[in-house]
Automatic annotation (TrEMBL), chains A, B:
SUPFAM superfamilies registered for this protein in UniProt: Thiamin diphosphate-binding fold (THDP-binding)
Lineage: Bacteria, Bacillati, Actinomycetota, Actinomycetes, Pseudonocardiales
Keywords on record: Thiamine pyrophosphate
CDD domains noted in UniProt: TPP_BFDC, TPP_PYR_POX_like
Protein name, as recorded: Acetolactate synthase-1/2/3 large subunit
Pfam families to which the protein is assigned, alphabetical: TPP_enzyme_C, TPP_enzyme_N
GO molecular function, one term: flavin adenine dinucleotide binding
Organism, scientific name: Amycolatopsis sacchari
Amino acid sequence: MNGAQSLIRTLVDAGVDVCFANPGTSEMHFVAALDSVPEMRGVLGLFEGVVTGAADGYARIAGKPAATLLHLGPGLGNGLANLHNARRAHTPVVNVVGDHATHHKKYDAPLESDILAVAGSLQGWVRESHSTADVGADAAAAVAASMDPPGRVATLILPADVSWGDGGTAVAPIPPRKPHAVAPGKVQAVAEVLRSGEPVAVLIGGAACREAGLRAVSRITAATGAKAFIETFPARLERGAGLPTIERLGYLAEQATYQLSGIKHLIVAGTKSPVSFFAYPGKPSDLVPEGAQVHTLAELDHDVVGALEALADEVAAGVEPVLQEARRPELPSGPLTAQNWVEVIGALLPENAIISDETNTSGVLLPNATAGAPRHDVLTLTGGAIGQGLPVATGAAVAAPDRPVIALQADGSALYTISALWTHARENLDVTTVILNNSAYAILRMELQRVGAESSGPKANALLDLSKPDMDFAKIAEGMGVPATRATTAEELAEQFRAAQAEPGPHLIDAVVPPLL
Amino acid sequence: MNGAQSLIRTLVDAGVDVCFANPGTSEMHFVAALDSVPEMRGVLGLFEGVVTGAADGYARIAGKPAATLLHLGPGLGNGLANLHNARRAHTPVVNVVGDHATHHKKYDAPLESDILAVAGSLQGWVRESHSTADVGADAAAAVAASMDPPGRVATLILPADVSWGDGGTAVAPIPPRKPHAVAPGKVQAVAEVLRSGEPVAVLIGGAACREAGLRAVSRITAATGAKAFIETFPARLERGAGLPTIERLGYLAEQATYQLSGIKHLIVAGTKSPVSFFAYPGKPSDLVPEGAQVHTLAELDHDVVGALEALADEVAAGVEPVLQEARRPELPSGPLTAQNWVEVIGALLPENAIISDETNTSGVLLPNATAGAPRHDVLTLTGGAIGQGLPVATGAAVAAPDRPVIALQADGSALYTISALWTHARENLDVTTVILNNSAYAILRMELQRVGAESSGPKANALLDLSKPDMDFAKIAEGMGVPATRATTAEELAEQFRAAQAEPGPHLIDAVVPPLL
């Protein structure tokens, strides 16, 4: 078998059987090899940001990595923003980046570039395959590295001649390392903090944001009176009726400061001590209240859920978690607002849904409206690099073909990776996209004030305005093969959302919503 | 003045008065400062690949850099592919990349990433401004570095607090360095080669692809019988009636090998010795015929035109260049084909046009059809990173508002940076986009065969197919505010192209063309 065949065979044997691809000439042997390994599914994206974001969304739901196939340095560059988000989500991703044949690199042909430098910026795992005989072992190492707790982006650079050369062998999977157990005594030490009588908050992230972790935290808060918060942008948050509802820490430093005010101890598990998303003149970056002490129960690569369960058993033996009752908002009426569109979603969210949430300012009121909806997963913008929502929805839908995926997507952010819609159509994915079309970079209007910029004259405001011309996302979606409608009232949104849910496959609703501010 | 104001003032004083921008929170003081320096024009792009490609197109026509404004590492990543093309075009570009405040970086906030590594991969000029007092000098240095022959990408990283801090000063421009003169005796030595009686070809690139260089080369070939070729992907090529017509070296190694067959000497000026775009199993990467000698008349940072003119005076004193006669194809009729669509363009190309050519396979026959059309500029895909054509057209139109811009754009490539159309509408740019919609990555179908891939089964072919679903670019364009039509016959294309030319402002024609192969 050639190098490409050994690569794909090794990936499949390690459980990596989906490849989101945007190939070029240097990847043609990989493409040809897909037909010789029937277990590998190739999913075409028309832009690398779609490919990498889809791989992120896929792994958040599947619990194992997908591969990507990217064309040299520029292809990796186009995929970099969503790989940044994957890095921040600790998502396992296996990038395969094609490169020029090894003997061709010295000629500095037009597409030659410093792939190692760009891949290295992701601070994950990077290796170049130097010979066909090595490809299988390199691929097995890449998968294991991607799954090494807490998960990371692994990038394998595959020169064309290494791919087309003969002498490849499939290599057996390397079992991924288990998360570390927390140090002996750590749970007891943190339990002492909870018993101290002083105000305590617990901040959780990563794996703790799913059922087992949430139940453990709810037991802890019920027994001790501590507050609990979820990190601002969890990779995957389970929520809805029957699960504990735990508030997320706010995006705005002002919100988070308010939420944490008065605490003397912050117990952190599966995330980092909270910091401001951006710096602002004269405001602190560290969001831990002055004088409060931070206690790390479990680092990201620890068995976070196990630690929380042990802590719950220590301080809350026999105490049950507090579970969210089923409740939905009433269906609202009238012109769409930042308030009522979330009520429509809360009222109509289907069972077992996956929400890809990149609503930015428009979604501020979403968590409350959906808290008592049927149980669902929420995938958020972990790294702040906008243009993630539609690709993540793509990958989630590939990972869970039996679950409805709801992409709630701000208009400005949607444009970065809009061709994800074509892949929704191509693969007939059950994704309902709702564009929150407020014709503005509304979050930047807010930020322009928050950073204390002296003026906001007409030229500054023009750079934050998307209304000249207004975009018609229904037309854009139809142009890419996705059936689409436009909603300007709550009734229209409800009717169109119901219709989209009633018919499997992709739909888009262009919801014209005024800016929150 | 604050750092942002000193930056913009310094840029404007150095002649950099257009900024293509896709800002975020860390760039809000730059955005606010635009209103305090009225000479700076801010042009919003909805994706960073549009911003960087526009800066490339702008500078190719304006002969001076534009600035870009990009949001931290992910924004630079999104812009990287078109910066790669700019690097290969030796286009001067001044990137301003916002970063977290210096005191915020240690907190590793979600958008923190290794900007230096990504910027460094462009192998141009990179500097981080460390204090507000330095910003003016850093900006002046960035502009000078970008213009240093033959031109490069300069990236200035601007932390938010350096931008918002007080104590900035505008700094006077640094005069850019002039190109080196070629070494004494070099012209005479090359003249001897031309007089040797052996078969010679001259290969030119860079600045030599404009009128003065073309005339000099035409005199040389007329006097000596040498062949002449233009590099495969020139950044800016002047051509049409009244100028010498010089053939471009083919993209396919087979073509280039045929063009250069039989020569004993290759004289190179303003470009590099030719190499294959990609490597292919068993085929050479170096396109210089075996046994032929390469003579470099002028490196890229030399006075290439001066050297060619001196060489022409040496070997072709009194000889006039051979100028292209005006001639246009007849207007064709019938269903669109790869043959007849180029005849429509050749027949109807307006005076003084700028063509942004990313037609890939569909445009193989374009050069002949437009050779005798009115004089025009052609901007090509210099670095092979697709998704350049619509952004380059954007920048060219901003640089030359009095010239019609024609974006001839392959369908697959268009999707990478499709939101450039919104900027065409926003700025009311006189850009007529013709999408060559063949519903395939047709070039990859060809490459799949050329690389000698063993199979091309259904899964491989599916990854090169854009027909399920077919895209409707007219709807996509209308969704972004650009009036659009669809053409399936030569008559429709002619009628729609004429109508687009008759009305200033952006238009798009979705031309449904069968694949060439």
